[in-house]
Amino acid sequence: MASKPRKRVLVPPDPATVDKPRTRGRPKKDPNQPKAEYKLSDRERARRSVQMRLRNAKKSAATQQQKAEYKKKKVKKLTQSADKIEKALQGEKTRVVDQGDLEHLPSAVGDLVDGSPVIFQPNPGPQEEFLSASEQDVLYGGAAGGGKSFALLADPLRYCHNPNHRGLLLRRTLDELTELIDKSKQLYPKAFPGATFRESKSTWVFPSGATMWFTYLDRDKDVTRFQGQAFNWIGIDEITQYPSSYVWDYLRSRLRSTDPELQQQLCMRCTANPGGVGGWWVKKMYIDHREPNKPFGAYDIETGKTFVWPDGHKKAGQPLFYRKFVPARLTDNPYLMADGQYEAMLRSLPDVERRRLLEGDWDVAEGAAFPEFSRSRHVVEHFELPTNWPRIRAADYGYASPSCVLWGAIDWDNNIWVYRELYAKHLTAEQLADKILEAEELDPLPHYNVLDSSCWNKTGFGPSIAETMMRAGVRWTPSDRNRLQGKMEIHRRLADDPYTNEPRLRIFSSCKHIIAQLSGIPLSKTNSEDVDTKAEDHAYDALRYMLMTRMSGYQSIHKTLQGIKDQAFQPADATFGY
Ligand SMILES: Nc1ncnc2c1ncn2[C@@H]1O[C@H](COP(=O)(O)OP(=O)(O)O)[C@@H](O)[C@H]1O
Ligand SMILES: [Mg+2]
After folding, report:
1. Most informative mutation of 140, 184, 333, 359 for ligand 1 (most atoms within 8 A of CB)
2. Could you tell me the pTM of the whole model?
3. Which of 223, 262, 326, 560 has its CB 3.0 to 4.6 Å from that of 232, i.e. a possible disulfide?
4. Ordered domains of the chain (ranges, CATH)
């Protein structure tokens, strides 16, 4: 059935509203109208007042609860401290009592503890400073016999009552580790009766369940053994035996704990004598430009920039973590100083050894390959180089390890002035070429360009590193790779020229890496003719390539000049000039 069509009705507009503008929303109040009054009944009034009182009562209850929580915590801490001390007094020394615990309790208890036998007490001075340090990363370094290794062994005992404590103590070789384990066997069972050393796992297991793993790490690439593991305490004894900071940096990624108490104090602790293959980076990380015994924000050892929280973080601009260097002195260890015999032995050592081991002097390197290198004679401040001094560029290429490019100028007496250095990691051959071209923009064209000859190696049809750089516009010739000859040439250049009484090689003070490597690179322990290749030596290699260049072009310049001189006007009479 078809529906009926709807009727449309047209309504005429209301003449009363037709002139008024249409407004949206709630109509405005008339300001002339009397204000509304709330007439509350007695019952409602009473209800509201009760509600308000209830609210206030709730608020004050919450405050009281907070106060009670705080007091509960305080009492718990006190009971724990009392427990520890009681056990210690009963000879059941399962926990370490520290000064903080004693402060909670009446002085009479402190007197009692003073009277009981003490298993370990830090020597006053640096050892105490090291053991009480609150910074995340601390180096205890300096004189031999200062009590460094002993303190490193004692440090983790502070946490061994906690079942979640996981500690890792490293040395470079197995023999050295055995010595450390022997010392720990004297100390640990006394501090924690019931602690056992599991030889098969080289791990101490404490009655609480806490563990301390003693192991050695010889090669850098073996750090992957620690992949996926977590430790709240990591220590290395004699850290300068590691040629670079690689292992220490990697271990930092393993430093973590889920235990709230241990999270508050994650520790990286290391000890060292000055010198050794890694003396240069340890000095750079903890000692150069920073005051001893004072915490400082950890910084990148290559750029010197402090690691900080990024923008947008609530700690933006603040250091990520702190480091501290505690210098060790033999005089602070009464156990070795008492009879003076050990001191006498150290005093009888040759000058360099004595300064390192007795005085803890970090400025002298052990078995330095270039003991004749001296900052006062070989390092000069920047000056404007004459544009007609021929230029020489030399480079050692690396991607994971740094690349180093050195620029030198040859003066008219055949002396070399190294005036610029480029030292960078993770640059492809093309990127390095770009950086070189950028640095040389205002330089005269170099006469000689030498690059590590292994950069021409290739196994297939693809371009070699040298070829890639040459395609990018940086020309190279292969370097001389004779290591021993190269080292001899550096010695010859560092020595004084008998005619001028000046060294034949000078370095601008801005070339930091080559200066550090010449002053710190040690001799090889297996081949005393060469430097230790485990130490960082990229700038040293670049310098070797530079000095081993046959500067035939330069000789010809000299010859040309000599020729011009020979053909020049020769006066017949030396006095009157004709
Ligand atoms: N706080 C201490 N309490 C007892 N003995 C100590 C203490 N500090 C050091 N010693 C003794 O001094 C010796 C030498 O210390 P050590 O840590 O080996 O020195 P370093 O590692 O600095 O060369 C240790 O074997 C130990 O017997
Ligand atoms: Mg030691």
Report:
1. 333
2. 0.59
3. 262
4. 74-118 (no CATH), 126-357 (3.40.50.300), 375-565 (3.30.420.280)
